User: What shape does this take?
Amino acid sequence: MVVSIETVGASGAYYIASASNKIYADQGSIVGSIGVIAEWVNYGDLLKWAKLKDVVIKTGEFKDTGNPSRDLTPAEQAYMQSLINNMFGQFVKAVADGRGLKFDDVKAIADGKVWTGEQAKDIKLIDSVGDFEAAVADTARSVGISGEPTLVHPEKDRRTLMDLLLGDVSQYIPSREKMLEQQVGFYYLWK
Assistant: This one.
């Protein structure tokens, strides 16, 4: 599998790309952001201001860890940090294994930074600086295809503006419950 990074190949996208056989990136693309983050909004002070209380009934000490109506306890902070650290180790190992690098070498650069494609080549996060066409040409050549390779693209959804206006738009509008739902999660993302 060959990956071509045209603009951004950071965090979760880089996690996936690192498993490929070869990675190309445009010289000015953004690559890297090896790290893990968990974040949420704490609206506890807003609830106090509005004289509202969050009521929680739970089965275990950690069942509502990340509850956005209060701060984490020291035990919850330690628990969350242990999860983040474990996921981070998995991310670093995946990059090291996928890129054929030493774990400690990847860990040394895994601080959430991003690099340009040109810089990423210097630290072995990519194999070649080049655009999509270069990736296609090199890949075709490496598997013995002569001439212009045939590219197959997935069919695009051909809905028109009129389809959206006259069709069932409810599928595009989240339910009230969904909008009110607080999403706490772990992310491989670049911000």
